[in-house]
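EI: anyone free to look at a 159-residue chain?
SC: sure, send it
EI:
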Amino acid sequence: MASVNKVILMGNCGRDPEVRYLPSGQAVANVSIATSTRRKNRETGDMVEDTQWHRITFYDRLAEIAGEYVKKGRPIYVEGRLKYGKYTDQAGIEKNTVDIIATELQLLGGRDGSSSSEDSGGGYSPQNAPSKQAPKTAAPSAAQAPKTNFDDMDDDIPF
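SC: here you go
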């Protein structure tokens, strides 16, 4: 049975990305994104805004792009997958974490970060990101869906 682990977020950056490089030379960038929902309070009738913060991690060329173009307050669109973890804080208390490992990034708004419709920003993913290095080939993962050839199907649909 196939499974899906996919997250789509659109929100504002809470801080500038922190870009670092692993000993292997792999770039890693971390940023937080705020998403908000609004609802009406049943008792008072006032509009209540609920803001959730999400920790996003970018890798490789996507991390370099995020470090260069993503800024605090700028609206962005991110696709990725959830990753759960645990750590023990300094007081010895075990804490749970939820991170989003980004696979795609879209810069929203104008060049200055405003939400102008004149500039839709740029869409980046590991597949279409410009690279300074030769593309790396990766072995296909077992989680990928098998490819089907729809040309072999008959066109005789009864409805």
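EI: The radius of gyration is 20 Å.
SC: 👍
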